[in-house]
Amino acid sequence: MKIDYNKVREVKLRHLSSYIERKDMKENFTDSVDTEHHYKLLSYISNQKDNQLIYELGTHYGLSAVAFSTNKTNKIVTYDVVRRNTIQLPDNVEQRIGNIFELGQKDELLKANIIFLDTGHLGEFEIKIYTYLKNMNWKGILICDDIHFNSFMKNFWNEIDVTKYDVTEIGHKENPIGPEDNTGTGIVDFNNQIEILK
Is the pLDDT of residue 29 over 50? Predict the structure, then answer.
């Protein structure tokens, strides 16, 4: 899979804004806004291959699931411990409520081609997911949000010992307040299948 920084920047998301009711959230999907968020990157990755199974851990408001949904051949399964009902999820997105471990569904992750990890940012759950996937010899792509968010996430990211890429430049961009406020985006490539083009 090639991740071309210039092509990621060209991704258009305006057509997805119909799923979103709140004006402040809708602005994240207008093509005129070069948002700090990662939605263009997620949409781009989803469109690199058809018939993929994508798992998201941490639905929150559902915007990332909507971004992934742009490739209608892909199925997105998104987990969160709370149902917020702030947007209409597309037909190719299934929402599940609960902790994937407590639900006894962790083995579902092994079926995924792509996993997006955007949970509590305390490091413990992130390490648990990464360790489980590594121990099970999983061969997919793990996208990690907010890898520079706090010391817990920085430690988590630093401890990853398989091929990884910090793609903050096209994920969570530089914050207008200053680069020290970048929350970061990282990709862990468990099967050495990614080529980065800058």
Answer: yes
Structure tokens at 46: 């989803």
User: Using CA atoms, how far apart are residues 108 and 70, in angstroms rounded to an integer?
Assistant: 22
Computed from CA positions of residues 60, 183, 141, 134, in that sequence, does the dihedral angle turn out positive or negative?
A: negative
Cβ contacts of 153 within 8 Å, gap of 6 or more: 121, 123, 126, 146, 147, 184
CA distances from 42 to 67, 76, 167, 178 (A): 6, 12, 12, 24
Q: Cα separations (Å) of 65 from 77, 178, 192? A: 8, 28, 25
Give tens-digit pLDDT for 135-177: 999 999 999 998 988 889 899 999 999 999 999 888 765 544 4
